[in-house]
Amino acid sequence: MSKLRVTTLAGNDGDIRIGVTINRPQREVRLRHSDFLRHCIIVGTTGSGKSTTAGVIASQLSKFGIVIILDWYGEFPQILDKISHKYTHYRASEHSKIPVPSRIESIINILEEVLDLTPPQSYILRRVLKGGLTSFKEVLHAVDEFEVTARWMIESKYALLRKLGTLFSDQYVNYLGSTYERGLVDMLKRSSRKPMVVDLSVFEEYGARKFMALLVLRLLEEFKSQHLITDKVFVIVDESHNILTSSKSLLERMMAEVRKLNIGITLITQSPALLSYRIISNSNIKIIHALKSRDDVDVITRSVGSGVAVDKVLPRLGVGEVVVDAPSLASPVLVKVNYA
After folding, report:
1. Against a cut of 0.85, is the pTM above it?
2. Which of 110, 128, 129, 289 shows the smallest number of beta carbons within 10 Å?
3. CA–CA separation, 306 vs 14, rounded Å?
4. Distance in angstroms (rounded) separating the CA atoms of residues 182 and 166
5. Where does 10-83+194-337 sit in CATH, by number?
């Protein structure tokens, strides 16, 4: 395996232990928790160890603030059991649902992204939501009863009904309103010092998973803006490429804006080529597992700077072996991830 030369390993004074260098002499590699507030991406092929790496980081970040893992496949409880045994497991159920943001525009923006709504469909939805409805069942009924005259509006109305019906067929997707937000704030505060895993796998439809993930992200932004939560917040988004499917992505916008709120976002994906240049450039930490696709290798190699032979190393990394590029390191370094 090609060696990445390290002139200075400044990461030893950090508070998040990633592992030890692969090349000898072996040295411990640590990153500063504050750097995760400037965002991170964890990339690699399926089975390369991305989720375990994220679990190692999450268990340590929880010492410095609230950690929320948006768990796409419901795998993180098993991962965290092997690392620290400390986490809060949040599964949506009949009695435990995630509220939506209290601002109507936030709801509409999320639904526009998830359902790819047209302007007329958004207009109808905005008119309906201004009626102060308390459940998505009521929303569906109100759209169905919405009076239209022009033919183009009729077509938009029934297209909107089809889209909403698909999303809200899941029993756990509910519009509960702002009165339920305080309960979620209290839960987040109680989860301090251990990661909170939001299990998205209970939703059968991928659209519902994306909807709930975006709800949590938007709620966190509102909570921080309103000073309902004062702790630092670290959000880990599993299978983030499933959420970044729109040119007007809420997540991409947040990556550019939420640093000032002390919210750090870590994206996990199997293909960095699916991430926009804006997202990659807004991520100060890059943790790179094995990559086989030439497109993925090229994208990530350009992001860590020229003159470093990362492209020769990435296809041959073993499970749990990573290239780490971070502000506290003088140059990218090969690391074997260890359990914290």
Report:
1. yes
2. 129
3. 25
4. 29
5. 3.40.50.300
